[in-house]
Amino acid sequence: MSTRDAIVAVINRKGGAGKSTTTFQLAGSLVELGRRVLIVDLDPQASLTRLVLDEPVGQGEGIGNCLLLDGPPAASRIRPTALKFDLLPGDRSIEGANIALLDYPGRFRRLRRALAGIAGYDVVLVDTPPSLDFATASAMVAARWAILPTGTVQQDIDALVDTLALLDNLAADDEDVARRLAIVPTGTERDNVDRQVVEALHVTFGDLVLEPIPRTVAVKRSMNARVPVCVSEPRSPAVPRYRALAELVTRAVTGGVAGEVARATA
User: What kind and span of H or E run contains 28?
Assistant: First the structure.
């Protein structure tokens, strides 16, 4: 398996879609399955970095500078965490890399090249910012697989469509982009509105749409405690959904879902 086969980008242009929460909880469930996991925080806000590291990351010590033509190797920036997964931290240097590489023809491929030098992980999860910018496009080009968390109001669905359109546009420009692995409705309530939205997503996207992650206080407590919910409150109704996503990711990175994805996107 190549390094790229293990890379999963968690993407959506809208803030509040659940990208960082999904990345964090998915990492916890993958660790529970015995997988060695690396999180790459590609969001300049560095929310996940602040969540999982006890010590702050200095300016320029994150992934952004590793994308520069003369940047340090990404492996040198990896930090262990107390949660049994590792982190390649984020900081505002990703914004500087965007500017520095503005005229470089292969700018969107720099992340793929940087991560190619990292070995020893079963899964590499890339958390992305709430925008369709350099960082998100770079994640789409670096990853083999894409997970798209989404809320259930119209603005969320519009953002999901826009994000999928960017994947399609990059592919039309002959970029080898991530394959769609899953659309994950997040923070859903047990009401008719959310039920109808999830049903509509199934009609439009078929088997790509997973069972929704319910809104639960256990996930909030988990994030506040900085411990994955599968550890902090394993009986939460959200836990089986994150475990199912972790199992799907495991099958994907080991070559076990190519047929499923082909059918879902046909």
Answer: helix 19-32
Report the candidate in 128, 171, 122 with the shortest Cα–Cα distance to residue 10: 128
Mean pLDDT for the stretch of residues 35-51 = 95
Question: What string of DSSP letters covers 199-250?
Answer: HHHHHHHGGGBPPPPBP-HHHHHHHHHTS-HHHH-TTSTHHHHHHHHHHHHH
Whole-angstrom Cα distance, residue 21 to residue 127? 10
Mean pLDDT of 47-75: 90
Q: Which domains does the chain have, with CATH numbers?
A: 4-260 (3.40.50.300)
pLDDT in tens, 116-135: 989 999 999 999 999 999 99
Phi, psi of 232 (to 5 degrees): -75, -40
Helices 134-142/93-100 angle, 10° precision:
90
Entry pTM: 0.94
